Amino acid sequence: MVLERTFIAIKPDGVQRGLVGEIICRFESKGFTLVGLKLVQVSRELAEQHYGVHRERPFFSGLVEFIISAPLVAMVWEGDGVVASARKIIGATNPLTAEPGTIRGDFGVNIGRNLIHGSDAIETANSEIALWFLDEELVSWQPSLSGWIRE
Ligand code: IDP
Ligand code: MG
To answer: What's the distance, Cα to Cα, between the start and end of the chain in Å?
Structure first.
């Protein structure tokens, strides 16, 4: 397995609903390593850039307004296969169809309030990490438990 990094954001609804600890816990308990973390009041420019691929979609303007409406928690998580695994932990885009046991499946009921973002591929992860974090904001470290988490 190749050690990967992915960009995860707890959206404003997750922060407002007091789910930051619960959501971080899902990734920590799984065995992934937190290498970047900050609370951000996002600018319109950053939100539009982050969701640029959806610019032509009908929900785009509402999505940008939502993302800039209150602080979000931006994170980078590291681990074997973390990009695809994080998407599984997060669950399907629509919380109503997301499986129980996933973050969206356990805590959400509406596609416009689906609590969390996770990069959808390794290249996307790399560009999102570069968009949201400066190099010096990311910390490479070896958890002392790592020998009990991976061979
Ligand atoms: P993803 O977050 O699971 O990758 P995408 O299709 O990339 O889902 O959509 C990005 C975000 O846009 C979703 O997480 C959600 O917040 C929002 N979104 C997607 N589809 C809709 C919709 O039909 N109505 C409202 N918001 C939507
Ligand atoms: Mg997406």
So the answer is: 11
Tell me how far apart the alpha carbons of residues 105 and 111 are, in angstroms, rounded to a whole number.
11
Q: Cα–Cα distance between 136 and 145 in angstroms, integer?
A: 24
Catalytic residues: 117
141 within 8 A of 35, measured Cβ to Cβ: yes
**In testing the pocket of ligand 1, which one of 63, 65, 102, 119 has its CB within 8 Å of the most ligand atoms?**
63
Q: What is the pLDDT of residues 30-82, one digit of tens each?
A: 999 999 999 999 999 999 999 999 999 999 999 999 999 999 999 999 999 99
Q: For a pocket test of ligand 1, which of 13, 51, 53, 59 has the largest count of ligand atoms closer than 8 A to its C-beta?
A: 59
Angstrom distance (rounded) from CA 57 to CA 38: 29
Contacts of 84 (CB under 8 A, 6+ apart): none
Q: How far apart are the C-alpha atoms of 13 and 99, rounded to whole Å?
A: 19
Mean pLDDT, residues 119-133 taken together: 98
Residue nearest to atom 26 of ligand 1 (CA): 112
Q: Which atom of ligand 1 is nearest the CA belonging to 113?
A: 16
